[in-house]
Amino acid sequence: GESVGLHLPTLSVQEGDNSIINCAYSNSASDYFIWYKQESGKGPQFIIDIRSNMDKRQGQRVTVLLNKTVKHLSLQIAATQPGDSAVYFCAEVYNKLIFGAGTRLAVHP
Amino acid sequence: GAVVSQHPSRVICKSGTSVKIECRSLDFQATTMFWYRQFPKQSLMLMATSNEGSKATYEQGVEKDKFLINHASLTLSTLTVTSAHPEDSSFYICSAKSRLETQYFGPGTRLLVL
After folding, report:
1. Which residues of B touch A8 (CB under 8 A)?
2. pLDDT per residue over B27-62, tens digit each?
3. I need a labelling partner for B112 at 20 to 30 A (CA). Which of B18, B70, B79, B99 fits?
4. Is A92 helix (H, G, I), strand (E, B) or coil?
């Protein structure tokens, strides 16, 4: 389930389950959105992106959904693996790239 | 994919000293580079945007005289934290934008000011 930590909310899932990480963005004029994965002590790693003229985009085991009406973005990870454990950030782009708050994904065997 | 490097990866310094962090795009030319700061358990906060050959644009609340940015070439940007204090201890991450507008991130530099 979800819980709110000191700053980062945490999503705990069982290995093999699907994960859904949500994000609210702030600028309705943002035209490009990106999901990043950040492991401890490392820089952000690109996962998948989506343009504002799309509602859904699929990659390998990941799907991003965009709801512009409510300014909401989600990342779905299928068959979550221990290696997926990390902090996930959404980012919106309008002239510059601004990160959202982040969610820690903890995958348990 | 494109690679962005940062040096050093970790640095410890005494309060009052200055620290320079380098950001390099290794296999592409970056007309624009960005500097972010990340405190523990928080998101990345954009500090400034630097364009090659021109002055950096700083975000609101970021002191330009404290965080000096130089983008002297299409592959190198430097961030100098001047007169560093313990509250400047953080994880500093750069990113570089290619001509195709894709933004690539470096591995980060952890700064600890004693």
Report:
1. 41-42
2. 899 989 999 999 998 999 999 999 888 889 999 999
3. B70
4. strand
